[in-house]
């Protein structure tokens, strides 16, 4: 990333960081910001960098991101190299020692959650695969959301010990509400156990594992690699064999190939955002699942 750097950085170096009463938290994604908000309430300030309607693997870096990071007390990242294409240079250029990887103000949310699809053989980004350290879309399992919230709670308590009891109480409340919500999500998804679906990108393995859906194929030949004609033909044949009724597409992918596949197989193409902020009405972590499960259950019912 090239930013008209000299001027901006000279400005940054001279800028005193405002001493704010509450920790200033920056998160890589809106999902993480939503979870920090649950735990931190008004005892933290939180802002996300990537928007929920953007592909989190490929975010266009802007100078304003560096300014946000410059004044952060805590940076929470998804990790597993999800942000490797855009975040590391921003962290370096922020010139903020507190949030450098390994520092107290850097929290990798992937370290305490359940990670799927950890490669057993050698996989590198040179092969084009954007999931070299396992699947980074792990927030789509509510139990992982709970674990992220717990890690955030512990981190905030260390940064702001005077508010530790508030963070603990807010975490407990979030945990309760999540548990209640899981009951209704389980009920809504129960009729579709074992249903075969196809997705564009490998965004949904944690979700499908949690709610017992069977993903039998992907529009991308590998994560991050655009569809190829030969792969698409194989996928169409497989979807016909498996009678797949629904194809999920994240909002940031071109619909041309999915729609062609839908016409060929009769599968319904369902655009489904995998993140908070993916649609205006999705403003909370629990709200993300409410939205996704409603849309998905309706489509699976129609596709059955
Ligand atoms: Zn991905």
What does it look like?
With 304 residues, this protein is an alpha/beta fold. It contains 10 helices and 8 strands. It has helices at residues 5-14, 30-40, 63-70, 87-94, 142-159, 164-189, 205-210, 229-242, 256-265, 285-303; strands at 24-27, 45-48, 74-77, 106-108, 196-199, 214-218, 246-249, 268-271. The strands form 2 sheets. Strands 2-1-3-4 form a 4-stranded parallel β-sheet, with helices on one face. It is globular and about 60 Å long. The mean pLDDT is 93.
With strands numbered from the N-terminus, the spatial order across the biggest sheet is 2-1-3-4
| Number of distinct helices | 10
The tally of beta strands, per DSSP, is: 8
Sequence stretches where pLDDT stays below 50 over 5 or more residues: none
Strand fraction band? 5-15%
Work out the radius of gyration.
20 Å
Structural class: alpha/beta
| N→C terminal distance | 47 Å
Q: How would a textbook summarize the main sheet? A: 4 strands, parallel
Named once each, the bound ligands are: zinc ion
Helix content: 40-55%
Instruction: Give the averaged pLDDT, no decimals.
Output: 93
- What best-fitting shape do the alpha-carbon axes yield? globular
Topology as a string of helices (H) and strands (E): HEHEHEHEHHEHEHEHEH
């Amino acid at each position: 990333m090239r930013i008209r750097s000299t001027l901006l950085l000279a400005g940054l170096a001279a800028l005193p960081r405002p001493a704010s009463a509450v920790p200033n938290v920056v998160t890589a994604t809106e999902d993480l910001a939503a979870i920090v908000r649950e735990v931190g309430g008004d005892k933290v300030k939180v802002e996300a960098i990537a928007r929920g309607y953007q592909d989190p693997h490929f975010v266009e870096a802007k100078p304003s991101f560096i300014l946000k990071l410059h004044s952060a007390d805590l940076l929470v990242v998804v990790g597993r190299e999800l942000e490797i294409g855009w975040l590391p240079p921003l962290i370096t250029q922020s010139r903020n020692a507190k949030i450098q990887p390994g520092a107290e103000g850097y929290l990798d949310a992937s370290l305490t959650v359940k990670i799927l699809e950890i490669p057993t053989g050698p996989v590198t980004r040179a092969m084009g695969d954007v999931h070299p350290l396992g699947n980074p879309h792990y927030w789509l399992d509510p139990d992982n959301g709970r674990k992220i919230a717990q890690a955030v709670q512990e981190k905030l308590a260390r940064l702001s010990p005077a508010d530790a009891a508030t963070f603990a109480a807010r975490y407990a409340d979030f945990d309760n509400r999540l548990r209640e919500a899981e009951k209704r999500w389980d009920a809504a998804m129960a009729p579709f156990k074992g249903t075969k679906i196809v997705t564009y990108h490998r965004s949904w393995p944690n979700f499908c594992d949690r709610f017992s859906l069977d993903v039998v194929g992907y529009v991308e030949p590998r994560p991050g690699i655009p569809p190829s004609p030969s792969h698409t033909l194989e996928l169409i044949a497989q979807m016909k064999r498996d009678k797949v009724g629904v194809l999920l597409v994240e909002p940031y992918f071109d619909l041309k190939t999915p729609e062609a596949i839908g016409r060929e197989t009769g599968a319904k193409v369902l655009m489904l955002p995998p993140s908070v902020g993916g649609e205006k009405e999705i403003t909370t972590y629990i709200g993300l699942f409410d939205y996704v499960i409603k849309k998905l259950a309706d489509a699976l019912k129609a596709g059955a």
